[in-house]
Amino acid sequence: SSWWSHVEMGPPDPILGVTEAYKRDTNSKKMNLGVGAYRDDNGKPYVLNCVRKAEAMIASKKMDKEYLPIGGLADFTRASAELALGENSEAFKSGRYVTVQGISGTGSLRIGANFLQRFFKASRDVYLPKPSWGNHTPIFRDAGLQLQAYRYYDPKTCSLDFTGAMDDISKIPEKSIILLHACAHNPTGVDPRQEQWKELAAVVKKRNLLVYFDMAYQGFASGDINRDAWAVRYFIDQGINIVLSQSFAKNMGLYGERAGAFTVICSDADEAKRVESQLKILIRPMYSNPPMNGARIASMILNTPDLRKEWLTEVKGMADRIISMRTQLVSNLKKEGSSHNWQHITDQIGMFCFTGLKPEQVERLIKEFSVYMTKDGRVSVAGVTSGNVGYLAHAIHQVTK
Amino acid sequence: MAASIFAAVPISPPVAVFKLTADFREDSDSRKVNLGVGAYRTDEGQPWVLPVVKKVEQMIANDNSLNHEYLPILGLPEFRANASRIALGDDSPAIKENRVGSVQSLGGTGALRIGAEFLRRWYNGNNNTATPVYVSAPSWENHNSVFMDAGFKDIRTYHYWDAAKRGLDLQGLLNDMEQAPEFSIFILHACAHNPTGTDPTPEQWKQIATVMKRRSLFPFFDSAYQGFASGSLDKDAWAVRYFVSEGFELFCAQSFSKNFGLYNERVGNLTVVGKDADNVKRVLSQMEKIVRTTWSNPPSQGARIVATTLSSPQLFDEWKGNVKTMADRVLLMRAELRSRLEALGTPGTWNHITEQIGMFSFTGLNPKQVEYMVKEKHIYLMASGRINMCGLTTKNLDYVAKSIHEAVTKIQ
């Protein structure tokens, strides 16, 4: 008999399951609005020009393949920190931070979660917004922490339940960990306005919470990297020493290269050194040291003025196309004759849109129209093109009229 | 402002082998030699990007149909299948019977970690924090940390290195296996044992397998040097394949860091051999969950390079040639170092230098002698006496041999 007879079949990943079902579908009109990867207006994956250029530059340098340090490529981690914090950031300039390279957003979140489990003794509780990215919960759980929630999304208005959020957060036990999406909330696309961020910062400070920012869409949300990092920078300016996870999967289209970073804002440079040494102790038994390729590309882009400029233009291009698709979807729904209020589609920001569609309606979209999305009604706007936005509006109208 | 929550975080000591390289870098002595960290070096003391890797990277760069999309959670399918095939052999009964699974991982370390996390959750019941895990004495020091961080509380050593006779302590090893609680997990080095370079012979492996089968011990192979040890992929995989042929269910953590020279691309594979396809399917589904919360999906570049190479007969042959080049240079350095020490009349016996296999040699130098080597001679090696043969070149062989001679004769 086998050692594994008692091993249960694991549940299929809901998001990837959508793509798998989509692939099997033979309908020529099919649309994949499941997984969050950017597509161009032809529905194709988009390799950024600045990425291609960076790759060519890297190839011409004929570099070796020696192990990176455990904490990753220094040029990359420094540039990542500067991108998030801003070049004028006091925390950045004083060196009172540590940034280690992580395996894209997931790996960075996990390192941070493990670090908090080991060194943040005040609490085992991580408060996530309701809803949050599905993978947040198992990441923190596997790291040994406990999950709690605060109100965030209001399904009645398809927007932020700010009163509910403030109410819940003001009651979170002191020194708990609270996770905030820096911009382009996943899955809802609902972000606080700047005045709301200010109030959130105040209450978080009052409750003495440890703030964990997840920033997976800097630049991708509004098209402006500084605007998208505003909340992160504001919190730090308010004296809140945050921890931060960054991903370059979406904003540089480096999905499979796994480029990310985890940052801890510290009291001073000495503390940063001590924290760094402990992060390395966590990383080594996980995968020893991080993969070079994505970090090298990202570093080349961030640190080469011409490439950086081109990148900023391209990331704005991606964000603009998404915004344009939102606008077209709403206008097409109106044209279809829909009487519903679809304003949330253009109010929301980033790759995802919480349509407000119910599971039964989603089911119909999949079965009758071959329009694939997750059961919660989340649509990846990146999968919408000027070629299929009309069809999508038609399908949504059919299941909601 | 309130005191920082991290005020009490202590500085942790650096990982020894990296500290060694850091010290080496800072050393301004022109005679310095780095015999520390395990990466291949040419006879000019330079890193070596394999010619076949350069060629394949160019192919990848020129292929405009490729993009940077996410790989599946378990990795690039062509990589996974080929990587496991390399370990188990083209004619592996397990592959034919469709009872092999693969998880693309971040290097050998990543493969070990995923395997360890899975075992802690699912091996022998559902909670294995108390299941003993046996690591060879000595072993790669990260083995302990991997299993500890995966949640195992009872990590023990099994006898392996016999310092007196400078060889394998087979009897001690077998005794430990006899005494080990049933169902214990044993980490076995598939070939080119790190750090001793001392491997069991096929006959000795057979004895090990017999005891492990009788006592229901779980074999977790660590295969970081396939091809690199003897120059032959098949020869270096003999032990793993033997265990498979004996009907064991096992894990094999593979690294392509050394044999492909892809160190910083983090290319590894966890090969799972089960009793049948259904068991393997369920195991993989649970491993997917573990991968998802660790790194979501693995990096693409290195896997593409390996997959492309292994699936083309011509590139595969080229690769084997590159691997043999590396293995042969190491064998040459072993022979040259040994002959110099014997010519110098350095006290002791030095046949272990050529009898040991792979990148490393356990010289037998004691910590004081090592300190002498580092401080007085600027030759950097691990406190255990482990040297990386790749750090030797035709230019520094004389200096290193003379220095070892001095250390052994001057310091007891």
From TrEMBL, chain A:
Keywords: Aminotransferase, Mitochondrion, Pyridoxal phosphate, Transferase
EC supergroup of this enzyme: transferase
Cofactor: pyridoxal 5'-phosphate
Gene Ontology terms: cellular component: mitochondrial matrix
UniProt xrefs under InterPro entries: Aminotransferase_I/II_large, Asp_trans, NHTrfase_class1_PyrdxlP-BS, PyrdxlP-dep_Trfase, PyrdxlP-dep_Trfase_major, PyrdxlP-dep_Trfase_small
Chemical reaction(s) catalysed: L-aspartate + 2-oxoglutarate = oxaloacetate + L-glutamate
Entry EC no(s): 2.6.1.1
Subcellular location, principal: mitochondrion
Protein localization: Mitochondrion matrix
KW Thylakoid (keyword) present: no
Record-level GO BP terms: L-aspartate catabolic process
Domain Aminotransferase class I/classII large: 29-396
SUPFAM superfamilies reported for this sequence: PLP-dependent transferases
Top-level lineage group: Eukaryota
Claim: Transferase is one of the keywords in the record: yes
Alphabetical list of PROSITE patterns matching this protein: AA_TRANSFER_CLASS_1
An annotated Gene Ontology molecular function: pyridoxal phosphate binding
Family, as annotated: Belongs to the class-I pyridoxal-phosphate-dependent aminotransferase family.
Miscellaneous notes: In eukaryotes there are cytoplasmic, mitochondrial and chloroplastic isozymes.
Subunit structure: Homodimer.
Protein name: Aspartate aminotransferase
Organism expressing this protein natively: Anthoscopus minutus (Southern penduline-tit)
Gene behind this protein: Got2
UniProtKB/TrEMBL annotation, chain B:
Cofactor dependence: pyridoxal 5'-phosphate
Keyword Acyltransferase: no
Coiled coil: none
A Pfam cross-reference name: Aminotran_1_2
Gene Ontology, cellular component aspect: cytosol
GO BP, one annotated term: aspartate biosynthetic process
SUPFAM superfamilies (alphabetical): PLP-dependent transferases
Compartments where found: Cytoplasm
GO molecular function, one term: L-cysteine transaminase activity
NCBIfam families: PRK09257.1 (NF006719)
Miscellaneous comment as given in the Swiss-Prot or TrEMBL entry: In eukaryotes there are cytoplasmic, mitochondrial and chloroplastic isozymes.
Subunit text: Homodimer.
Protein name: Aspartate aminotransferase
Organism of derivation: Anthoscopus minutus
Gene that produces this protein: Got1
